[in-house]
Amino acid sequence: MQAVCVFAGSAPGNNPEYTHQAIQLGNVLAKSKVRLIYGGSRLGLMGEIANEVLSLNGSVTGIMPRGLLRGENVHQELTAFVEVESMHERKAMMNEMADGFIALPGGLGTLEELFEVLCWSQIGIHQKPIGLLNVNGYYDPLIELIKHSVEQGFAHSSSENLLIVANDAHTLFQMMSAYQPERPEAKWKHHPTGKLDG
Predict the structure, then answer these.
(1) Are 64 and 89 contacting, i.e. CB atoms less than 8 angstroms apart?
(2) Under a CB-based contact definition with an 8 Å cutoff, are residues 133 and 169 in contact?
(3) What are 131's strand-pairing partners?
(4) DSSP state string for 54-121
(5) Which of 94, 148, 179, 180 yields a CA-CA distance of 20 to 30 A from 195?
(6) So which residues are the signal peptide here (predicted)?
């Protein structure tokens, strides 16, 4: 992997381990000479990982829609900063630039970005690794929800394999580096009636 897109909270969270693992991930990316692509903020976990990569002379690209430039407090020391018109353009550019994705703990924005790349993987738009840095079990409820959706017949069992999950940055990066894409399963299956079930 030459570039990884990281989704993360613009707040630090209530547990110092969130910040610690964000810094550890930045350390791993910089020392592995992997470019960080992220949302461009200097706040929260987003700022922590960017600061760590930059402190080790690594490369960081921030991408931010014009409407968020004031509210998200743009990081002023990035290697590159790209201003786009919309969230859709931001996410499309992230997908184009990145060789993989990692979600750190975060709020609704982080979850939305994570689920979009998961959906894109499910339907075959990309075959890039998607990592979940499950610090202190933060994402345990989400993992259980995905399992529940499979058990209730709303998702294919392969959905559970779309995520690469680890509790620490070093292990997660090693697992993602070894990732081999599988043939995507068909999302839609036929009912006996001949209708499609999405």
Answers:
(1) no
(2) yes
(3) 102, 164
(4) HHTT--EEEEEEGGGTTTTTB-TT-SEEEEESSHHHHHHHHHHH-SEEEE-S--HHHHHHHHHHHHHH
(5) 148
(6) none
Name the CA dihedral angle for 25, 94, 147, 152, rounded to a multiple of 10 degrees: 170
Q: How far apart are CA 16 and CA 39, in angstroms?
A: 21
The tens-digit pLDDT sequence of the chain (198 residues) is: 999 999 999 999 999 999 999 999 999 999 999 999 999 999 999 999 999 999 999 999 999 988 766 655 888 899 999 999 998 999 999 999 999 999 999 999 999 999 999 999 988 889 999 999 999 999 999 999 999 999 999 988 888 889 999 999 999 999 999 998 876 555 555 444 444 344
Closest CA to 37 of 19, 69, 59: 59
Supply the Cα-derived Rg of the chain in whole angstroms: 17
DSSP state of 146: H
Q: Which CATH architecture has domain 3-180?
A: 3-Layer(aba) Sandwich (3.40)
Q: State how beta strands 3-7 and 35-38 pair.
A: parallel
